[in-house]
Amino acid sequence: MSAIAETNQLFENPRLIPAAIVAVCVGALGSALASEYWGGLDPCVLCIYQRYAYVGAMTLGLIGLVLAPRGKALKAVILLAGLAFLTGAGIAMFHVGVEQHWWRGTEACHAPAIDFNAPIAEMREQLLAKQPATCDTIPWSFAGISIAGFNVIASLLFAGGCVWAARRVTES
């Protein structure tokens, strides 16, 4: 079977595109949670914000499964999922800039300061409390690309895929 025939077959079943969006999001969120809980990579606040984009796209994919037979509505949902991926790419690009020290992150990106005027017992509690990860440290990278950098690439590809798929959905 040729690649064109396989591509056309994809668009004959309108549920496949939103199902693919959901699958991509489940995979991305699953790998993020696996790296956190099994890999020991604590997420910073910008990492969490990037997950929200996937949750939004996944929600739209689920809505698309319900709207699958409706061409214009399905096309709109797919385009909105693409916009969610594009938003995630923007957050990830901002995160890469913070990691590279091109600009400062949000206030939530920095670990809370220790109050050195507090009593010793309170300072001890502050030091022993688990500190959130800071956004400007790179906990893992491959070939010089951080997790946020890979997310930029993936999110842009997913957004482009949504635009490509929406253009090919038949309006009925």
From TrEMBL:
Tell me, which GO biological process terms does this entry list? protein folding
What UniProt keywords are attached to this protein's entry?
Cell membrane, Membrane, Transmembrane, Transmembrane helix
Taxonomic source organism? Denitrobaculum tricleocarpae
What is the official name of this protein in its record? Answer: Disulfide bond formation protein B
Any keyword rRNA processing? no
User: What membrane topology does the UniProt entry give?
Assistant: Multi-pass membrane protein
What domain of life?
Bacteria
One GO cellular component assignment for this chain's record is:
plasma membrane
Instruction: Name one molecular function that GO assigns to this entry.
Output: protein-disulfide reductase activity
InterPro entries (alphabetical): DiS_bond_form_DsbB/BdbC, DsbB, DsbB-like_sf, Uncharacterised_DsbB
